[in-house]
Each structure stands twice: as structure tokens, then as C-alpha cells.
Amino acid sequence: MAIVIFHNPNCSKSGAALQLIRDAGQDPVVVPYMKTGWTKPQLQALFAVADLDARDVLRTARGQAKELGLLEEGVSEEAILDAMVAHPELVERPIVCSPRGVRLCRPPELVGELLGD
Asked: pTM higher than 0.85 for the full model?
């Protein structure tokens, strides 16, 4: 299985993780999710393998999550997932998949745990 990085080229953390993967001699599959978007089953599968829920991966840094009311107490997992599908930028990045598992690699150095044999 190849390493897969769900990558946003406008994100310095995502770029740093991608560079670390390449520096380790890997040629990852790069998924430009800002162009391709997400599906709800795709997000659910990634989050399940990474042992995360949608709130754990919700990007709150730019304020869009707040504007959409996603930071309010009681907002359901389904509502957050629906918003992530409608607004791909709401997913924190980068998410990296490898034979060793799936991680949200923030900070980017966490990608090291997914590299190797």
C-alpha cells in the first residue's frame, strides 16, 4: 500500500508533511482534496481508522466553522460531516494514510510515525 496524503498546497503544514514523506524516500499519492472534495463515507472511514471524530478534525482556525455554527455545543457528527462535504476546507490537514495507519499530521512531524517498513 502506498502512502496517501490528503493535501492542500496552500497549507504550510500540509506542505511540510509532504516534504517529510518525500525526504524519507517515499513517493506518495497526493490527493488534492480542495479540488476533488470529500464524500461522507470517505471521511467516516478515515476518521474511524484514525480513531477520531469529525469534531477532532474540524478546522477552526479561520472562523468559517464558527460562522456556520459548528462550534456550538450539541452540533451533531452528521452536521459536521455534511458541512465538511460542502466545505472541504473545514477538514484540518494533512491527513496521511499508510500501511501503519491513518493520522492527522499536525504537527507535520507526526508523519514520521507512519513511515518505514
From this structure: yes
